[in-house]
What does this fold into?
Amino acid sequence: MQLIEKGLAYVDSLSAEQAREYRGTLTEPGTDSPDRNRAIDESLDLFVRMRAGEFKDGSYSLRAKINMASPNVNMRDPILYRIRQTTHHQTGDQWCIYPTYDYTHCISDAIENITHSLCTLEFEDHRPLYDWILNSLDLGSLQSVSELGSEGIKYVLPEQTEFAKLKLTYTMMGKRNLKEMVDAGVVQGWDDPRMPTLAGMRRRGFTPASIRNFCESVGVSRSESVVDMSMLEHAIRDDLDKNAPRAMCVLSPLRIVLENLDPDHSELLSLQNHPKDEMMGRRDVPFTRDIFIDRGDFEEDPPTGFKRLVPGGEVRLRGSYVIKCDEVIKDAQGEITELKCSVDKDTLGKKPEGRKVKGVIHWVSATAGIPVKVRLYDRLFNEKNPESKIIKDYRQCLNPSSLVELMECVVEPSALGVGAFSNFQFEREGYFCIDTIDSTEETPVFNRTITLRDSWAE
It folds into this structure.
């Protein structure tokens, strides 16, 4: 109403098609609407009747009165309000006129006491209209309805600043493309850990500090550019390497029976939570007669340079004893089902006498360990730019290994329960976090945040 009373807005009867014709082009100025000089009282009356629902859709609109010859087409008497005789999903039938985005953007910022409105570059041509609307309205009326209007704080109008979009390789950043992936079931929702959304990154285990550090490292630019995904991955690796406690989880379990221990043998070994930070404290890890190691840490016919467990060979269990493989047990199909080993009881925290044991592997107690599901996440696409014009269908470059689910993993007890950390480095496997959405008491779920090393390095 203020803009109409000041002669800075008028009710226009041009149809949408006519308004486009009158607007002009990028090279030709627009033409004044026949209603541009409508009397203020008449525009006020028509606007009240628009609000009351007297007119059909498209009969009238409220337009700003600026400059139809402006080289910026956004300043050629833009529409502020349209008639929409439809039920709104939030307000129902309370309103039948609705403001445009350009009109509400700046006013909403002013009401919410935004000082700097940060927008992407496509809004640069809209900034003159943003400023015009705010400077045309009464400052006192904006302040009176602002969230801090009664706090006695100096009131300032917001300013719009533009910057280039942050684009990453091996992903799609456009909202339309992301929505299409969600709707088509390519991903499992907006919070799918493979999605470049804050909800997805949070669920995958990306820490706030890692995202801030990444943003600081790439900076803010006004020129379009694409940042390599490895920079974001480096930021999360760097943060978790310093701050994530260690734990042990066996992804592909192979049972070992330590035959020179009693069947009910159980002891608690004290392991440091972080090898470089004693302030993170220590944890108790149960050591029992039956343990699990990863299948990849045993080779019956080892390749050259293999330093882990082999028949007749020795290896050290992380934070524990040196063990020796004495016998390999197989099923009827020739698959290895169990290893019978022996413990050198004099090697806890000490080197074995008279020999050198090079390999160190992780392990979990078979009786005290907790069964979990583990999801190995990776980049969603195997092409650097899946939004490239030369790629007709982004589905052609989806990474089939972007999600691998492992069902029979076993984790040490300290990774779950009261006082457990939110992020871990599962030793020799990568960085992981608990999935708070899909985890249950019966089946905890861990999501891999990132691998220990960059497997995509060229």
